C-alpha cells in the first residue's frame, strides 16, 4: 500500500494554486480594475459586421483561451514592460489551471498551444526561449495593430472594466463559456440595459440559446441582477410589453479609487446643521 510521506504532504500544501498565481500577477500590475476595449466584445455601429473577437472564443468553445486572454490583458495593460509579460511555461500553465488535470510536460505544452491560438487571432504575439514564454498584447479588436492603453475618447477606444477581485476572489472559477461571454456583454453597456436573445446571432455571433444560458448562469451565481420593465404597446394584446433589464451586482462592478471613495463617504453637513430641523412653508 502506497503511503505519502510528511515531506510530500508539506510540499503539496506549500505549492501555489492557479488562483495564487493569478493574484500575484495582478498585484504586480497594481490595478484595481482591468481595462478592455469594447471592440473585443462587439464592433462599433457602422462596421460591416458587429461581431467582435469574442465570437471566436464562444463558437470555438475556447473557455481556456478566453480566460487566458483576459489574464494577459490584466498582466500587461499597465505598460511597465512595454505591454509584455514573461513567465516560465509552467507558470503560464498554472495561471490557466492546466496543471490540475495534466502532467507537468503536458501542462507546459497546453499553455503554449493556448497562447498560439491567441496569436492566430491577432490578439497577442508570443515567443519562446527555452521554457520561458514572452507575451505581448496587441489591440483588442483583432486587427493586429500594436496595443496602447484605451483612453475612451473615440467610439473605437471606449473600454469596459473588470475588477481585479474577479480573479483574486475566484469569481472567474465558477463561470462557463456562455456566462463569461455574457458578463463581458453586460459590462460593455450601461447599467439596466436590455439584452434580448433574438438579435444575439447578428449582434455578437452566437446563438440565442447560448445567450439565454449565459444570462441564467450569471443570475444563478448572483453576478448580475434583473429588473422587469413595462412599455406601453397599443397594438399588443395586453396593451403593453415587458422587458427584462440587467446590470452587474456589486461583486462584479469596477472598484472606485480609494481616494474618491473616501471623499464621497464624508458627511456633507455639520452636526449643528444636521441636528436642526428644516423649516417648510405652511
Helix and strand composition category: alpha+beta
**How many strand units?**
8
Biggest sheet architecture: 3 strands, antiparallel
Strand content bin? 15-25%
Number of helices: 12
The outline comes out as globular
Helix percentage range: 25-40%
Quaternary state reads single chain
Radius of gyration: 23 Å
Total separate domains: 1
Could you list the spans in which at least 5 consecutive residues all have pLDDT below 50?
267-282
Strand order of the largest sheet: 2-4-3
Mean pLDDT: 88
Measure the end-to-end span: 90 Å
Helix-strand topology string: HHEHHEHHEEEHHEHHEEHH
What does this structure look like?
This protein has one domain. The strands form 3 sheets. Strands 2-4-3 form a 3-stranded antiparallel beta sheet. The protein has a 3-stranded antiparallel beta sheet with strand order 6-8-7. A two-stranded antiparallel sheet has the order 1-5. It has helices at 6-14, 18-29, 54-59, 63-76, 89-95, 104-120, 165-168, 177-188, 200-203, 208-221, 258-265, 271-275, and strands spanning 33-37, 84-88, 124-129, 132-137, 159-163, 193-194, 224-232, 240-248. The protein has 12 helices and 8 strands. The chain is an alpha+beta fold and 282 residues long. α2 packs parallel to α4 (63-76), α4 crosses α6 and α8 packs across α10 (208-221).
